[in-house]
Amino acid sequence: MKTIKIGIIGAGRIGRVHAENIAKFVPEMEIKTVSDPYMSGETLEFLQRLRIPGLVKDADVILSDPEIKAVVVCSPTDLHAEYAIKAAQAGKDVFVEKPVDYRIERVREVIDEVKKAGVKLQVGFNRRFDHNHRAVYEAVREGKVGRVNLIKISSRDPAPPSIDYVRVSGGIFYDMMVHDFDMARFLAGSEVTEVFAYGGVLVDPAIGEAGDVDTAVVSLKFENGAMGVIDNSRRAVYGYDQRVEVFGSEGAVMDGNDTPSNAVFYGVEGTVSDTCYKIMWDRYTGAFAAEQKAFASAVINGTEPPVTGEDGLYPILIAAAAAKSLREGRPVRIAEIE
Amino acid sequence: MKTIKIGIIGAGRIGRVHAENIAKFVPEMEIKTVSDPYMSGETLEFLQRLRIPGLVKDADVILSDPEIKAVVVCSPTDLHAEYAIKAAQAGKDVFVEKPVDYRIERVREVIDEVKKAGVKLQVGFNRRFDHNHRAVYEAVREGKVGRVNLIKISSRDPAPPSIDYVRVSGGIFYDMMVHDFDMARFLAGSEVTEVFAYGGVLVDPAIGEAGDVDTAVVSLKFENGAMGVIDNSRRAVYGYDQRVEVFGSEGAVMDGNDTPSNAVFYGVEGTVSDTCYKIMWDRYTGAFAAEQKAFASAVINGTEPPVTGEDGLYPILIAAAAAKSLREGRPVRIAEIE
Amino acid sequence: MKTIKIGIIGAGRIGRVHAENIAKFVPEMEIKTVSDPYMSGETLEFLQRLRIPGLVKDADVILSDPEIKAVVVCSPTDLHAEYAIKAAQAGKDVFVEKPVDYRIERVREVIDEVKKAGVKLQVGFNRRFDHNHRAVYEAVREGKVGRVNLIKISSRDPAPPSIDYVRVSGGIFYDMMVHDFDMARFLAGSEVTEVFAYGGVLVDPAIGEAGDVDTAVVSLKFENGAMGVIDNSRRAVYGYDQRVEVFGSEGAVMDGNDTPSNAVFYGVEGTVSDTCYKIMWDRYTGAFAAEQKAFASAVINGTEPPVTGEDGLYPILIAAAAAKSLREGRPVRIAEIE
Amino acid sequence: MKTIKIGIIGAGRIGRVHAENIAKFVPEMEIKTVSDPYMSGETLEFLQRLRIPGLVKDADVILSDPEIKAVVVCSPTDLHAEYAIKAAQAGKDVFVEKPVDYRIERVREVIDEVKKAGVKLQVGFNRRFDHNHRAVYEAVREGKVGRVNLIKISSRDPAPPSIDYVRVSGGIFYDMMVHDFDMARFLAGSEVTEVFAYGGVLVDPAIGEAGDVDTAVVSLKFENGAMGVIDNSRRAVYGYDQRVEVFGSEGAVMDGNDTPSNAVFYGVEGTVSDTCYKIMWDRYTGAFAAEQKAFASAVINGTEPPVTGEDGLYPILIAAAAAKSLREGRPVRIAEIE
User: Fold this and answer.
1) Rounded to a whole number, what is the distance in Å from the CA of A327 to chain D's nearest CA?
2) How high is the pLDDT of residue B285?
3) In a 10 Å sphere around its CB, with 0-12 CB exposed, 13-18 middle and 19+ buried, how is residue D45 labelled?
4) Which residue of C has its CA nearest to D201?
């Protein structure tokens, strides 16, 4: 088995998740160095247990290490583009967490620099690698549903983030629904051309005061004539609710939520089964590993990564259009953005 | 058990369905007379087998019969209002098939004449009586989902109607989605205030040539802040697909399709269960009986029918707004209609 | 449509169920007379509402009526055989409720008399006509599971019958599991050759004092080498639990319980759906109608009824073997019975 | 986190599975040495990738290493007892794969030696740690089903083992159903007192020629009065089918099979979902990790392991009784064994 050495920039939650998944499930990638200016003792211990030899503060240690072939960028969002560009310029293949950046021109810059440097770029839309969504995708690609007519996506978080986070998140379309915009493109196999957004503050007034909505329904039109709809809520008391449905000329395919077990209890009061997982990391645990395996494969075999820079850009454009639609109370074409 | 005598105007498909359901399942209503100017031999035989004594051409036989307390109007749509008004003026309680009329002023006339006559009026939105949708409704009314935030309705026909029918149907919003507009109000317990419609011709170009769309996604805003979305398709190859979902602050409740059996086959190629029913009459068979039982109860006990004249009017207003939204490419407030 | 006149002997619970189902769903059979020596006012009113013209005390009115072509025997169990034989001798086709009789020689007599008289005999094993079990059966007959290897049947009542009834019921194997013995033969397409029974008193000690068990597990061997198992309980708090499974060389097919609705609630505490029906009449309502339609078809078209006298006999033989097995603590061959 | 050093004896399939699971998911156990007299190059590479420092031929390297606190015995079955005893005598805690041995006296010896040495012993009944079975178990232990009345277990392999293996396997009761005997005790919370076995050769005549059966139905009686049934087949074409059900005075709880995804396709021909996993390692992957975590916890915290030596012995006694029952055609009490 051919293996490569990699570095991870950022050891926050998502950085640690990638480190753990790569260490356990991606033997073809050897994590040589993880950098983070603020590593807690707990984080250090966690990474040491994964037997990662280099734990440093300065990302330059990674960027300047000729042994390191690829970099996984897990920094705060506003530094994604900077590190991605630096890694590309250093000749390293880049995996960058989503969103690449909230600023469209910054995303374009990353794409341009990557192209110039001739390196690979993969964007962290991990849900594409979820076993359920992937099975839906494959059924669609195999032509089982025929021509795609409708796409429906429900995506609801178990609880809203902190108000501090809401303030800097860019809003629900950039921060939360961006995943669903990606999923919609992924499943439709066609570009979104127009959106119309309804949104409201139904979960927590503080979210409204912070300038965002917490519940939204966005209709989509695709280039191939298909239509779609995405609904988001910042709080589903029953857990992390993630379902997709594709309806076409030859049938429909849909998935549901995973649960901790499939045991069912039949009692006087009803038939009771498990609720879905309460947290993202449990639901998408396999997806994080699978996206890194895919990145490793692209890097090692010199193939195109399955989630490209353009795949990172389009959902941001759609998010911008959705935000504009909500502000202006009218459908907005993606072509209007920029 | 108190019983009343009723008459049925119209012995087309829906008239025969009501006749059969009343004869079998609503012993408190005795069908004295069915009128239809064009009854085939087969229809006559069918109604005789139900032991209905009066089979006549002229609706006036019913309208002028003092023994008949209530009339079920199953005429062609454009005569619904006329017969409903005549029945009301004759002092009879009225059940009228949906839509009351495509013309809003005509619906209002019916409502006014019914009020003037002091009789009962029930409109044939049968899906409210479906066992699955009813269970969703009851969970919502009992407060199980808390405050309603989102409503999702999928409604797909197994095959499009004839192009001749499409031409006179008033279009998908009046003819098909009108049921879902009713369901949306019913489940939300709040009025729709605005809609935005996407539509396209994805099933059959002939439908487009007839001036209609065959696939549509309509977003809804409700007075209480909730949002919703309805999707319709004129053709789902796997059957008559009817599902609703209500999401709120305390949970979600959703239903699925009924199937001929729940047998499941585990084979090499997959786990296979029945597809949903292929035709409306099979899926909603219990609902037709239940709505007539409810009508009988309102008539006999002098209570308010569960689907009023206003319930007949609002979905038409929403349909008009949806049609306008699709034409003008913008959200349309219900208040704009009229 | 060809129709025949029939009579029903016995207007207890099952007699009324058959009367209602035939009146509503079997237009090819016209109920001319129902006899019962003890008809309450309520029963009379119920049967009058079904527009049955002859309501009499004496079964001879039916047996001697040359217009009546077929008789449905719903008398107390110990009179089943007597009426069935009399009806046969009167040249009438016979439908007799299960069990034909607990005494094997009596069942044989019925079979012999029917043969002598050249009339049709159908036994009331209604579950064969249930939509779910029927779908399993058809999958097996179509060869979907290949060679049948295993049969599993769970059959649990929502509550035990009265102790008075238990005392005269013949015991759980004759009264309750007899249905499952029939189902086992029906699904396997092969005769049971041997059984082994475990039984216990786990539901109510009074059942034990009455000389019966309330919980039983019976293993079966079939002539074709397949094996099976049936479990019965007199009390499942969650309802009337009826499931079958057939496993073979090419797959497995199984069914589940029907529920009043398929609505599902997702809440903090779990995902909750309906419990199964609580009473037999709700679960098997369609089955009762279907078995009478099948009887009507056999009578009118002169074909073999789908549940023959032998089908009525074999489950009794198996019940006898199971009871013997439980008493003697050893496997008992069906050939040992008699 | 406290950690211990362990050794693994045997690097066949199950040895490698334990090595991988411990390396990935049980950071509290550090694998110092793996011994196997016949390690292929592939196995060596596999274990090196897990960064296991000591890869040796001779188990004595492990047994004599004072740093090694606990030993995981994955040798061929006939050496389980020998290594378990040697490890105990060397003062090491022992995890031994199931079955401890087919010979009852050998199992007793292991139990005795372990007791004498004062070390811990855990037996590898991994299914107890499966997330679905565990959820059923917990529902039962929490009292949700009330008093346990019935236990049903289906356990079917996707394909029979080689005939060579069948010849030395001890037979279906020792090799395959032993897992289900353990599961039955585990779920019932009561000892099996008697069994009755039916068995046949329905899958492959060669299995019969090798002296074994390939399909079996075994009824069980428990000390607390409950009854149970287990069915086994050596070949289910649709996969590795593993389901349990516990029925009691207050309800029932049952589980089903896991599938690669929960995507469902609705097409003209039916509604199709995934078949269950085809191989044990996929279904029980989490269970293998969980049992080692439990062993680590018992070793480190000095608590009783969750699957004791007695838990290893009883299923063998039940298997012996089942084999005797099949041979002699009569129910066999466990007390008869020995």
Assistant:
1) 36
2) 87
3) exposed
4) C225
